[in-house]
Amino acid sequence: MYGLGVLKGLWVTIKNFTLSYFTRKRLTTVQYPEERITLSEHARTFPILVYDESPDKLRCVACEICAKECPPKCISIVRAQDEAGKPLKQPKFFDIDYSVCMNCGICEEVCPFDSIYMDRQFELSAYERSEEFLYTKDRLAKSAEYFSKIRPETAKKVEEKRKAKEK
Amino acid sequence: MTLFQFLATTAFYAAMLGILIAAALCVTVRNLFHSAVFLAFTLIGIAMLYFFLQAEFIAAMQILLYVGAIMTLIVFAVMLTSRMGNPAVPQSFKNKKIVFLPLGLVGFILISAILKTPWETSEPQTAVNAVTLGKALMNQYVFPFEVVSLVLLVALIGAIVIARSE
Amino acid sequence: MNCPYLQNMDQQSTLDTQRLEVSLGPQHPSTHGVFQMDVVLDGEQVIRLKPVMGYLHRNHEKLMENMSWLACMPYTDRLDYFCALANNFSYALAVEKLAGIEVPERAQYLRVIMAELTRLINHIVLVGFLLNDLGAFFTPVLYAFREREKLLDLFEDVTGSRMMCNYFRFGGVKRDVPPDFILRVREIVNQFPKFLDELEELLTHNEILLSRCQNVGILPKALAVNAGITGPVLRASGIPYDIRKIDKYSIYGRFKFRVPVGEAGDVYDRYYVRILEMRESLQILEQAINEIPDGEVISKAGAQAAKMPRTLKVPKGDAYGRTEAPKGELGFYLVSDGSGKPYRYHVRAPSFINLTVLEDMCIGQKVADVIIILGSIDIVLGEVDR
Amino acid sequence: MLNTIDQIFIKAKQIILDILSPFLPEWMMILISIFIVIVTLCVFGPVVMMYLTLLERKFIGRMQNRYGPNRCGIFGLLQPLSDGIKMFTKEDIVPQKADPFAHFLGPITVIIPSLLVFSVIPFGRNMIPSDLSIGILFFFAVASTSTLWIFTAAWGSRNKFSLLGGMRAVAQMVSYEIPMLLSIVPALLVVGSFSTVAIVNAQEGLQWFVFTPWGLVGFILFFLTGVAEVNRCPFDLPEGESEIIAGFHTEYSGMKFALFYMAEYMNAFSVSALVTTVYLGGWQGPILPSWLWFFAKTFVLISIMMWFRGTFPRMRVDQLMGFAWRGLLPLAFINLLAAALWVHLSFPLNDILSFCILTVSVLMIYVANRKVAPKKRIYKYAYE
After folding, report:
1. Do residues B136 and B80 share a domain?
2. Which among A10, A14, A28 has the least Cβ separation from residue D65?
3. Is A25 domain-assigned?
4. 4Fe-4S ferredoxin-type domain: from which residue to which, for each copy (chain A) (predicted)?
5. B8 within some domain
6. How far apart are the first and last CA of chain D?
7. What is the reported pTM?
8. What is the span of the domain harbouring residue A84?
């Protein structure tokens, strides 16, 4: 019959309207600032550097593998030197340009020293584009406890691997 | 002369003045489309006159037919003829001065004729409203009514024949 | 707007209204991105249409020539940003064919599951936006987005990001799936047909949709084949050409599924073929979940190449890997000169090639139809302009 | 007690007049009473429009499994206010090539008919702003001018999309005016006068015209053509967002756009008000006060219009015309015939006769348009 399809369409929308008052399935809005969706274990946004005891003793040894492998080349590292000019095993400068980084997670995979991991923080808006998004070493450094808080399983695996290596 | 009569007459004359201004603008303005819009304002002014004279049915018909239908037709005609690209269609009118001579002559004749004729201002016998008009149309004037509808029918068929040729 | 290309108009007949040159410009509410069509109209009828592209050209192919093989993978997500995993799939296949890397069983199944979930997302979003072009005030789109959110949350848990997944590696996938993955996919597979039935009830027999989409923008079979059209647009014109059935790449040979085919090749066929395809993808997902084995997720060589990308030795030569992406045949033609970087990297983008027949379909149609014909071809400008 | 609630607005006006009467001369009092009615209408119009927009956004929001505006005010009640402020503060851009006179004239002349039209709608028992003897005809006369003004706005903004929108608007409104007028004529035939108050009085108690066979068909006809006349979905071609951006009001921003927006919603309200007056018995209703009945029926009709907007895609221009000329117009003529027969014959016979005439004619129109109607298709599968 000619008009049936039109009526069925009307029936679907009014069904959705009435059901939206009863089941959450039909009302899927998450009121963002008040309610938040809990992100999963592997969710990744921007890279951070992990340190064990204090922020200036990073796990990173400035081997620059991640800088070479990063597709958009947003990591830049300068190796530290002691007074005699002998290169040391930690970075003097380590900054990532968050506005260039496309959070692909390759740096996390290729880092042999488990020092760079992907954080989950996405509310990073800023007024100024050039300086504020160029994250320097101290802004990138995050403690191991923070890391194990946001990513428990990976942190556990990394701990076992590091203990095995020390033995 | 209570205040109401004073208000009513001033409104009446104001409407007439509005019609005159709109009609003058409609003729003199350069942009074709503006003159069509001013024509619409004159027609609405005339409808307001009918309202003031309590001939509501005629006023409603005036608006419905003239402004609703005929003006739309005229505006369509204006849009389709003038080149859509440029805003104003150039009107070449070199010697404006000499036009006042015939204008003055015609004006004089008209005004003198108006002043001479004896306008008898008696009350209309039967209140003209929709019901009386309808009865008159169907009883006494049914023949002209049918002829007019025939003419409209012919016009309709003509339009379809022209449009169908595309 | 007197663009030079349209200046030499042929002589107008007497009764003709003046021709109207309209540019449905890059900023238009329903060109699915930055895409311009210079249309010559006679009243509402389209006389000539010239697509203008290139607004979103990001120099993708040249950029890849100084990236390592692995570094190209995250860029393939950005080609057709609606189905990132389908792009990863064909790029991974092309490199594996070139470098001769094997893929373990479990990874093959995971790849097929991910590809079919992406097909679901792409088709419901397309149906939603096609209805939005038709004028339905956002209702079908929001129903489609309600379902898409479930799938995107699943992608976030598995691959780490909702749309830019970067999950495939040469020789398998980046990381094993979380334990409840199979349960969640099964729940989606059970619940999706109910959503599709509701969407069909709202749309498929709606008289306004039927009269607006039937016999509009007809793509004849011969033209479709000659123009190299692939994907649902080709199948809607009546040619059963599906690369999953022809190449039987990866493990598609093991799954039993059908390929829907339309006959008139108009907008309605393209719409309905996609809905039937979604039902077929659900069949594939059903069989894939039941048969998925355990085991490692990436081969020895693959893991080593992922960990140390420099060590991936791709021998000299060229290869062309293609898969049935939701929009058509997405192929990667890679030439390697033995160094760590691809010498030549070309993407056969289905949207770009399907767009070439836009003018033939739009001549003689109304302005309103041009928009839905463009919508029914399902183009994404990231893939068209690369 | 009930009667006082029913006449509460008239009493309020009387109280105001009584307070003022000792201070002002007698002729001024008449002016003031007219002035009160005009002020209430001019305030009532925009306020109804503001809260109609909110009702529409929440209603369609819920249809789409989301909330709809709930940030300004408790349930988003201040949202129309914030929209209004936004419209005030937005810059009012006049395109450089646009024709300033027509561009400026557009919104003003579009808003006048939608406000004038309120004067003939009976909101409650003897609560009609001006009881014209030609109420319905006045409504259509004023509503039909809006075609011209919409075209002025389209032509004035000198933009190809608004030109297309303007052409579509004129074609659509002209071709839907005829079935709209014809669908009203049966009610006038039965009542015998144009005045809206007479029409409502003729539908005493629960004898609404919609329960008679010709009334039902007339109601559906009048509602559909009303939706088309007001340019709402599924007939919203003049401002087809997806095709011609925003149709005739593409080049308008700021307060001018707000006037167009307000005119659209006020027209929607006045058309549904007229449908309730003519076919759903205006303010006639058993217990509740008269104006409550009137507003309840009107809001039911408006929510049906919003329901349409949340569900249907848009019709194409030629289908829209075909639907009007091939579908609604013949039905309107036959409905007129059925109503004439209904009036002429006595009770049992007239209902049956007009009912079968109408069903036969609906089937005939359906068969006549069979060729045009789209067909359902079955799809084959390769690789079985």
Report:
1. no
2. A28
3. no
4. 51-80, 92-121
5. yes
6. 76
7. 0.89
8. 39-166
The CATH number of residue A157's host domain is 3.30.70.3270
Touching status, chains B and C (3+ beta-carbon pairs under 8 Å): yes
pLDDT band at C286, cuts 50/70/90?
A: very high
Q: How far is C49 from chain B (nearest CA, A)?
A: 20
Any domain includes B31: yes
Q: How far is CA C280 from CA C112, C130, C192, C193, in A?
A: 13, 21, 12, 11
pLDDT band (50, 70, 90) for residue C8: very low
- Give the model's confidence band at C16: pLDDT under 50 very low, under 70 low, under 90 confident, else very high: low
Residue from the list C75, C205, C307 with its beta carbon closest to the beta carbon of A71: C75
Map chain C to HEC letters: CCCHHHCCCCCCCCCCCCCEEEEECCCCCCCCCCCEEEEEEECCEEEEEEEECCCCCCCHHHHHHHCCHHHHHHHHHCCCCCCHHHHHHHHHHHHHHHHCCCCCHHHHHHHHHHHHHHHHHHHHHHHHHHHHHHCCCCHHHHHHHHHHHHHHHHHHHHHCCCCCCCCEECCEECCCCCCCHHHHHHHHHHHHHHHHHHHHHHHCCCHHHHHHHCCCCCCCHHHHHHCCCCCHHHHHCCCCCCHHHHCCCCCHHHCCCCEEECCCCCHHHHHHHHHHHHHHHHHHHHHHHHHCCCCCCECHHHHHHHHCHHHCCCCCEEEEEEEEECCEEEEEEEEECCCCCEEEEEEECHHHHHHCCHHHHHCCCEHHHHHHHHHHHCCCHHHHHC
B74 lies in the same domain as B6: yes
Strand partners, A95: A76
Q: What was the ipTM of the complex prediction?
A: 0.87
**CA D114/CA D111 separation, integer angstroms:** 5
Number of domains in chain A: 1
Residue C354 has pLDDT above 50, yes or no: yes
Domain that holds residue B30: 1-85
A7 in any annotated domain: no
D234 touches chain C (CB under 8 A): yes
A12 touching D (Cβ < 8 Å): yes
Any idea where the domains of chain D sit in the sequence?
91-370
The neighbours of chain D, by the rule of 3 or more Cβ pairs under 8 Å, are: A, B, C
- Is the pLDDT score of C12 beyond 50? no
Low-confidence ranges of chain D (pLDDT < 70): 384
Residues B1, B74 within the same domain: yes
Contact D62 A21 (CB under 8 A): yes
| Residues of chain A where predicted confidence (pLDDT) is lower than 50 | none
- For the segment C47-88, what is each residue's pLDDT rounded down to a tens digit? 999 998 888 899 999 999 988 999 999 999 999 889 999 999
Same-domain status, B145 and B75 = no
B134 and B75 in a common domain: no
Residue C160: list chain A partners with CB under 8 A: 42-44, 105, 118
Given a cut of 60, whether residue C15 has pLDDT beyond it is no
pLDDT at C9 over 60: no
Taking the Cβ of residue C7 and every Cβ of chain B, the question of whether any pair is shorter than 8 Å is answered with: no
Question: Which of the pair, C6 or D346, is modelled with greater confidence?
Answer: D346
Count of domains forming chain B: 2
Closest Cα in chain C to A17: C139
- B75 contacts in chain D (CB < 8 Å): 148, 151-152, 155, 170
Residues C144-169: tens digit of each pLDDT: 999 999 999 999 999 989 999 899 99
Query: Is the CB of residue A22 less than 8 Å away from at least one CB of chain D?
Result: no
CATH code, B76: 1.20.120.1200
- The last residue of one of the domains, among B28, B60, B85, is B85
Give yes or no for A73 touching D (CB within 8 A): no
The answer to the question of residue A91 being in a domain is yes
Residue A8 lies in a domain: no
Which residue, C339, C279, C330, is CA-closest to C310? C339
